[in-house]
Amino acid sequence: MVRSTPPAPSPGAIGIRARTEFSRERQKVLRIDPADYQCPALAGQLADAWLDYADKNAVKSSVHQRAAVVSLCTFAGPHLASLGHDPADARLDSADLDLAEVVYAWEQQLSAGYAPQSNEPYRLANTLLNILDHAAQRDARIPERLRERARDRTVLRKRTAQVLDEYSNSERLALREAAMEDIRAMEKRLAAGRLLLEAGRDPREKGWLTVPQLLWAARNGTLTTASLYEYLPEHAQHWPAELRELRPAERGPFAGRRGLAVGVCRMLFPSEIDLHPFRVLLLLSMTDCTSEELHGLRVPEIEFSAQGARIVQTKNRASRVRADFHLTEPEADPQGDEGAGEKAFFEGGGQWDVPGLLRRLVAANELTRQVFDCKPWLFTAVELTGKGVPQAELGYLNVSGRRFTDWIAAHGEMDISQPHDARRLRKTAKTTRVAALGGTLSDLAGDDHHIQVFAGHYAHGTTAHTLAARAVNSAQRKVFDRITTKPILVDPDAEAHLSDPETADALGITVQQGRALMDGELDMGLTNCREPTDSPFTGPGKPCHVAPAMCMVCPNAVIFTSQLPRLLLFADHVERMRERLTPPVWQLHWGQKAQALAELFEECAEHIPAAREQIAAGAVDLDLPLGMRTEYDR
């Protein structure tokens, strides 16, 4: 929901422009006061164009549109003054000033204020041009040169975003263990605090120097830093030891009375830093849920049953709402029966599946929803406002000191690679699924992604690449193992006895194959073949179509010494191809065959002279298929 103030009655009128927007039911007012700039008329016109553009296009959040207008107006005033112009005269419909050149100059200096890999300059420039084009379409007085600039592209180049990789398996396990330990510690802390709360009374009657009384004040809305300043001794050394120990270990801004108020609230209510362990474990378990969907969950959108939990998830970027059911897993608490009292208090305690984690988070925030008038967000946190008043609202998890990286830093023993981005948790869950399932890309994409989306956003991860490389290497190894076996060389004495069982068994052939070889039924041109329909280069049951080009690297090949003259002619043909083809092409087509021929000739060197004599006498011809020449010889 958004609301904009009506634009000023005339283009030159000066007045604050404002737009009220709502994000996660938080109200946010965006304002532009033209009087804040040296070019108020131009600022007013651009602000009106911003409001109209946002309203006409139903923009939910126009933060970047406002930022683009503010950035240009901040730059335009000093820039025009440096050129000798009066910034107050600058207007979109001004014929005396070339605002297109001002826009060019603004674009060129934008990058200086941002990191080299930042896309913010490109986004601001592109956004401003869209607003200018919108204004030009509605105001015929805007000069043509500014219109052309608004229609053109920005001079800035869009940076290639850094692709986020998943966490390694050791990092995943470390994050998981740290999150589980923190949840156990939080549940024990809250259980201890609520037990002390039962003994608490109104501190205005019983005094402010005991923990139960302070917990009572937090439970009943009377605990603030102002009340602690009024009723506690000035110096902390005069407080009871139990109050001093209640302050967070990280002193800094949490020293003194503010730290005591924070410690008291943490005994009853989860804080933002307590929400990170739940988010870590849920994102590692819910492969079909984005961090955005998880963060926006409300308690009424979760329906528990004996079988699990049904969750209604909303993905704003895709404008999609869907319901998913997560089954309860019969998994025991890894810590055994320790902390049985806390588990009884927190329904579902001891289970680390999705339903169990959701039950525990809902139970942890039950008292928060009773004490504070807040929306039923699942990730509700209690923090002190700037005035020291406890307030419950959706934990945004991006405030300094409460971010994901701050939670990791609090566990100094963990060595987690940068960047500390919660989106990497989802990628880790996806690639863990890849490692578990294997299969084709369509199998891995599953029901929650198109193949193209999975390939572009998840299949690039290190784990997926490693598994893919391992699969390719395995497939190649199997192929190479089959095709790199040397052909069988049969000496002249054994040729006449191939039908004998002993000889056939020694050569790894059957008696029937031995008879067929002796009768010339399996002659493939250069060599014989014991299995023409079981070639490693074609499918089973199909006749081999790559003979005789691949016979020298085929384990089915059987060579008689009588075939050596043709093999010598074939070797000469291979060497002639070396002169005709480029080295890479020759190596691709003929390198392996040339090596196999050389090894064969070395093995039967005593028969080579006789074979050469047959060639010289013209008793042997080399007859190669035409298809082989067209495929391999060019």
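^ that was protein a. below is b, sequence first then the tokens
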Amino acid sequence: MRTVLGAAAVTAVALLAAVAVLGPAVWGGVAAHVDMDAALQPIGAGHLLGTDDLGRDVLARVVVATRLSAGLALSATLISLALGLVAGGLPSVLGVRGGRLVTASIDLAMTFPGLLLVLALAVIFGAGATGAVLAIGVAGAPSFARLTKNLAATVATQDYVSAARLFGVGRARLLVRHVLPNIAQPLVVNAAIGAGQALLAFAGLSFLGLGVQSPAYDWGRLLDEGLPNIYGNPAAALGPAAAIVLAGVAFSLAGEALAQTFGVRRSRHPGPSTPAPTPPAVGPGIPSAELSAGESVVRVAGLTVSVPAESGYVAVVDGVSFEIEPGERVGLVGESGSGKSLTALALAGLTPADVRASRLQVAGTDLLATTGRRRRRSLGASLSMVFQDPMTSLNPALRVGRQLAEVSQVHHGLSRPAALARAVDRLRGVHIPAPRHRARQYPHELSGGMRQRVMIAMGLMGEPRLVIADEPTTALDVSVQRRILRLLRDLSRESGAALLLISHDIAVIERTCARVLVMYCGTVVEDLPVERLAKGALHPYTRALLAAVPAMTTDRALPLATIPGRQPPPGQRPEGCPFAARCAHADERCLRERPPMTRHDGSHSVACWHPRIPEVAHEHA
């Protein structure tokens, strides 16, 4: 009511609702009164819109018909909206084949003209109000479905949807809680406009004799009855026509006002501070496979991730192999496009690309032998993932506490109050001040550092054995970055969970991890302890990355060190060493043969034909 649009919408809808509710009770008797002596009278003092061929007051009949006309239009709109939401939302939560089948069906339905489809369905369902509701509802579903599909496609790629998939959220819950709420605003507008269109369609069917049947009547039937006498009393036909237009305007105003209302999120004012309830212990839920003594948390051998290209599939990650022990902190470093994030997504089962490997195990779960819901539920209980941008990692339509609580509700069977209490406890565990108040807020009300802490707390709602942090500090300032890295390190120590930290910043890896995996062009080229990184790196690419990091002793009079050239595209990788074209030490063998990963000393392995000795570790490659 604070805006002109809102006041106009409320007034129009309230007036329409009042007429629909009170009309039959107040004017029903007048509308049904037959007076043959007053038949077909024009506009006069006693009849503002004249009378029909039975002497009934046209204005009273228009008012009484409001309830049936608006009710049938809203019923058809609800059918269209329900069918459209389901059909349009399915491609975002189904697999590739299922999504394509649903999309093709929607596109096929959209090729039929709407009016012809309504008429055809009206004949199929039969003449009458029920058949008209079904015909208009089904005919309007494809347009809602296509809009929903297009909007949902943009939401389905967000990190918070990926996080929900990782935590094992079912498809129906994923659609209802994470996809549809974030596309509600345009859908509300189109639903309101669709109600006006349904109203017009109903009037058309009734006018043609396929809609409401006598003795019942709606605005379409009144229009049909008044048309033969339009030259003698045009008001008898113009009255119901004006009612259709005004009702459509009311629906459109309501849609625009509701869209603006949904666009404004307000947090609830926190109540008086009370002691937080004791967080419940997490039940058995859906545990991952048990690790045997000495077994690694992650075991990857020959991992290949391929994406579609013009000439088939192209390997973006090619032959990656590594293991991560319980409680170990491992850094995965490399230039953008080296395959770091795709490797992590393959471990989490979140990439739609073609994933193949001779071994792919996470927390005792064989990802190659386990598929579908069972794999999602197992990974959701044992793996946590912290994404790069905390703003896109949290669902903007849900409060922070509800998002965290969902993990315990899905995996551990906790009640809603118990799950919320555990969520508050986890927020407190990642050092968020006033955790009960923060749990009531939406993500946009938190700072970037707090949002990233919330993501970490979400991963700790269970008992994860592996935490994957994909560029968790890129969007944060230096002081907040340091606190987040310290938090990840401390949580790994306290919980015993392994940490895989992905970053293009080698300095971040040095401060947080105990071991470093260096990736280049989709392969791991060096695996070494972090204490050897600064002075003992053997691969020319690793040393070039180190040289590109400025230090306090860097001569500011000289340009910053860079690595000449760039990585070859996935479809154009050379047969030999992928770094050969950018390496100052490459020879003919490097160009012809790809070097295997060879153990150099203890826990230090390198894939290079000419590994350099530690004394020249900072030499520019």
